[in-house]
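STRUCTURE REQUEST FORM
Protein name: Glutamine synthetase
Source organism: Cerina litoralis
Requested output: structure tokens
Priority: standard
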Amino acid sequence: MSKSKLEYIWLDGYKPTSNLRSKTKVQEDFSGKLEDCPLWSFDGSSTRQAEGGSSDCLLKPVAIYPDPVRKNGYLVMTEVLNADGTPHESNARSTIDDNDNDFWFGFEQEYFIMDKHTQLPLGFPVGGYPGPQGMYYCSVGGKNTHGRDFVEEHADLCIAAGLNFEGINQEVASGQWEFQLFAKGAKKAGDEIWVARYLLDRLTEKYGYYIEYHPKPVKGDWNGSGMHANFSNTTLRTCGSKDVYLKICEAFRPVTDHHIDVYGEFNDQRLTGEHETAAITDFSYGISDRGASIRIPIATVESGWKGYLEDRRPASNADPYKVAGRIVKTVKSAKIPEYAN
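Status: completed
Returned output:
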């Protein structure tokens, strides 16, 4: 008789920024399949998801990955349900309107690695600052590169877990890094970012670090952290029409505030119009423009207007389920004939 360790992962009810929670279920003779992961429960009164007098919330498994660290282990991403089986109000995944997986997402997750003892980004001396921005981006060598062993191990864990992990690079500020994930299906893209974040956060326990997802943890002339959302649907991938692209981009303009509302807490500190951002009060788009709200990649144009768009506004602490769900809704609102509701 074999026993497996299933790590059930969920998002808590803290607002406006949810936190990852997890606990382990030991299962005998587990098949490794999602459909054999049982429904489970937890104390919602300890996670701001229920009152103490009626505290049970349910965990519904929605994705499963092998745990690259634990023997006979699995990572089980779950949705939170109320006790009656309906989606909990904190469950943004259940609201995504992409049941046919027509939308593809590539998220670029930026973050700062923080030293737990100094509470500063790696490379920052106590009581001072490292050299100015310029030499850290995609750097090599001990003078400007900090945390490579940690980042490489995280990449290995994500790949071993079966995530569609696409790359890593050091970012513009000292101690700032990025990883990229791609998935076909808005819900799957959110699942994979959250599991990758879980692996990242869990790994910090081994190194004496913690991850700072705040979009502007270092004030002054330092880049903030985003979670750029590259997205497409069949229309964007195949239309071959500049006019269609512009119509979809324009659909974002009247709902700018709705997007900003779910694009991450403290994002106003990052979206200033400087450091490769558009101002939070503006909306713009442009070809190959990293200072625009939405960038139209040059590769899309050179492919005859067949490809994807990049929304550069989501912050590093944003919930990818909320970001993807809002983008799907807005793109569908453009009423391109074959996808009009």
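Reviewer notes: The longest strand covers residues 104-115. Residues 104-336 form a domain with the Creatine Kinase; Chain A, domain 2 fold (CATH 3.30.590.10).
Form closed.
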